[in-house]
Design brief:
- The protein is α+β, with helices and mostly antiparallel strands.
- The chain has a single domain, classed as Roll (2,3-Dihydroxybiphenyl 1,2-Dioxygenase, domain 1), CATH 3.10.180.10.
- The strands form 2 sheets. Strands 2-3-4-1-13-16-15-14 form an 8-stranded mixed β-sheet. An 8-stranded mixed β-sheet has the order 6-7-8-5-9-12-11-10, covered by helices on one side.
- A hairpin with an 8-residue loop joins strand 3 and strand 4.
- The N and C termini lie far apart (39 Å).
């Protein structure tokens, strides 16, 4: 049993239409599934990814209309990252952000790789990371119909950063229960704060890292638009997921038990600092109920929600997701 890397990251938006525009028209990702939040079927759940929405490339958003802005702070997933092929791609993206008025920083080196920080229209904290010298989990393949040239396209999810008041219990869960290994560390951008510690799983590399920042000077995050709800890690298949469920139960960690999300199967639990983790299977995938050439164009519902389609569609604001 070995987690293969990051599966997906799920965040909040207050406006699905503007979210769709930013992530497809500006970032050039493909919308691979337009569905609803299975725990609140009155709101959209949008999945973006590479050409097929392969595991490790999926950035998802729950739409919470009128949500207050995220109050950044502790006990949080404080930064998410997206992978690009090489350093040259970052030069392209810096210019694109300037042309499209996207808030961004300068190209810098973070943990021995070139990076470019930016924020989306709701203040979501993000970073593009170069895979020029990366060794580890392979990235995906950018969609060839994207508005962004394929050679510069986003290839998947990079490291996630956790900010916690006490690093030891989080490290314990990562290393002693989930099988992560400590890979290294790098200086905090905040003067006087401890180094940020890097952990990796599976084949390692940008697609399999968690960075943990200890901050005792922050108040707890209040989650809202522009905030991250949870991070999911890759499990090979359902058989292995059920083994993980038994392991987590054996550690007496409160958890969701087996959850069928139709496009993948899941387990949810919180690590000791309150951050929500998910373990998710690589399959069946997003082509289960849609043709690969038309992913994300229509509202897709898993079979157990199909009988409620009329009721669901009446509540949702129409969203044109043709790309």
């Amino acid at each position: 049993m070995k987690l293969k890397g990051i599966h997906h990251v799920s965040a909040f938006t207050a406006n699905a239409s503007n979210n769709f525009h930013f992530y497809t028209k500006i970032l050039g990702m493909r919308l691979v599934k337009k569905t609803v939040n299975q725990d609140n079927i009155s709101v959209y759940h949008l999945f973006y990814g590479d050409e097929q929405g392969n595991p490790g490339t999926e950035l998802t958003f729950f739409e919470i209309p009128n949500a207050a802005r995220n109050h950044d702070g502790n006990n949080s997933i404080s930064e998410i990252s997206l992978r690009v092929k090489n350093d040259e791609a970052l030069i392209f993206w810096k210019k694109r952000f300037e042309e499209t008025n996207v808030e961004h920083g300068e190209i810098e080196t973070v943990f021995n790789r070139k990076s470019l920080r930016f924020k989306d229209f709701e203040g979501q904290r993000m970073i593009l990371v170069s895979d020029e010298n990366n060794k580890g989990v392979a990235g995906g393949i950018p969609w060839d119909k994207s508005q962004v040239p394929q050679k510069y396209g986003i290839t998947g999810l990079g490291p996630v950063k956790l900010t916690v008041p006490y690093i030891e219990p989080t490290e314990g869960v990562l290393t002693e229960i989930m099988g992560f290994q400590k890979k290294g560390q790098y200086p905090s951008t905040i003067q006087g704060q401890p180094d940020i510690i890097v952990y990796e799983t599976g084949e390692g590399g940008t697609g399999a890292e968690v960075h943990v920042e200890e901050r005792k000077d922050l108040s707890r995050e209040r989650l809202g638009r522009g905030g991250v709800h949870h991070v999911a890690f890759r499990v090979e298949d359902e058989v292995e997921l059920r083994d993980w469920i038994q392991n987590i139960k054996g550690e007496r960690i409160p958890n969701s038990g087996y959850v069928d999300r139709y496009y993948f199967k899941s387990l949810y639990f919180r690590e000791p600092n309150g951050i929500l983790f998910e373990l998710a299977t690589d399959g069946p995938g997003f082509a289960t109920d849609e043709d690969l050439n038309h992913l994300g164009e229509a509202l897709a519902l898993p079979p157990f929600l199909e009988e409620k389609r009329s009721q669901i569609e009446e509540r949702l604001k129409p969203l044109d997701t043709r790309q």
